[in-house]
Amino acid sequence: YKKSLIDFRTGFFTTAFLGVIFLLLGYIMFYGTDNILPNKSIDFVSTLLELYTKSLGSWSYYLIGLTAFITMFSTVITCVDGYPRTITKSLKLLFFENKNKICNEEKLYVYILTISVLFTGLTILFFVSNMMKLIMVATVISFLTTPIIAILNLRLISDKSYPAKYRPRKAFFYFSYLCLAILLTLTIWFIFTQLN
Fold it and tell me: Rounded distance, CA 68 to CA 60, Å?
């Protein structure tokens, strides 16, 4: 448990820090400027690298390229391996564990993996000519699902069946409710701005 917590905290804070850095870089590069990203995927990546290199200097070209590659590669690994494993475990718990049914977890994993890869491939084929639309779809899905996932997580750790020794202190719950309120406010604001 403690090793997992160290792993989680390291990953969480590193990701949060890098997210803020990339948000600031994006703000500096695009907000209030005439810089526009093209729709086609290869042009999109090449323009992005070019803009960062112009702004930060020629030394940053390979660093930004490597960072972008690592980000995309780790996302692919997460989607291809982590996502099917999580769905497999969830389905096993929901439909097999308490019903005395036998579940071939390996076979179920292969089915989920195959469906995920096919769906991802179709998504890429559909959006290959319009990267901006893909980014917009991903943003909308993120904004709409994040509060739902947050509510489900909060319900899980507040449930009486959740082991008391792993349950966080009350201050954590107050902080979680505050964060949930902010998430819901941002989601409503996002939907409102998209509709107008």
Answer: 12
